[in-house]
Task: structure prediction
Amino acid sequence: MACKVMKKGLVGAGLAALALGLLFGSKAPSYVKTAFHKVRHNVDRSVPIQFEIDRARSELADLKPAIEQNIENVARAEEDVKELRSEIVAFRTNLDRETRDMLALRRELGSGDIRRTGATYTEDEVKKELKGRLDHCRQSQRTLSEMEKTLRLKEDAVKSARLQLKSFIEQKVTLEREIDEVEARQRSIEVARTTNEFRFDDSALGKVKQTIKELKKRQNIEIRKGELEGKMIDKSIDVAPASNDVLKEIDQEFGADTGSRTVTDKNL
Result:
């Protein structure tokens, strides 16, 4: 069953590759690669920024065990250097003592036989002893040189490790600060986005204000129009029918002799 499924998958992949080849020719691999990178880029952009910030913090936190392990390694290396220094000091002290003893024996050889702890040694025996001591001193000197060379290498390695560790820790601290800055900026962006969501349309209010202003203007025009019409209308006084009393009032006031006059059109 599994073989059948695998065969179907291989056949499907082969048919898809053949179809791409027929459609795009030699450009098919390039198109597939471009499409893959485009899809991957779109997926990366769809991931929330806060999620990426948390992921970066998690990656930095994962570095802590490695830093602690390197600190321990540097401490061990420094202790090894310290021990090697002590060994070199002790080794050099022994070599110096052996060299002094060899030179003292060499000086005694000129006086004849050498007596040590009740035994007497001939010149040949002393020379043989000196030859062994000389070989041993030479070998010890080579060993000391190698130890000193090893010490210098270890000191340089420890110094380099300390510098790298210091730089690594400083970079980690710098990255933590940068993540804090990115997160603070993201919070500001989110606050601004929230503020924009509650922003009202000032243009709509402006339209309403303009409408009210125009209405008030029209009302003022109507009021002014009414005032002007009131002033322009001819307000004539209706004359009541004259009575005889008015003739008497005129005669008395002006002394007119109405009895001997006849009212004509000329007088009017």
Q: What stands out?
A: The two ends are 139 Å apart (CA to CA). Residues 76-180 form one domain. Strands lie at 114-116, 119-121.
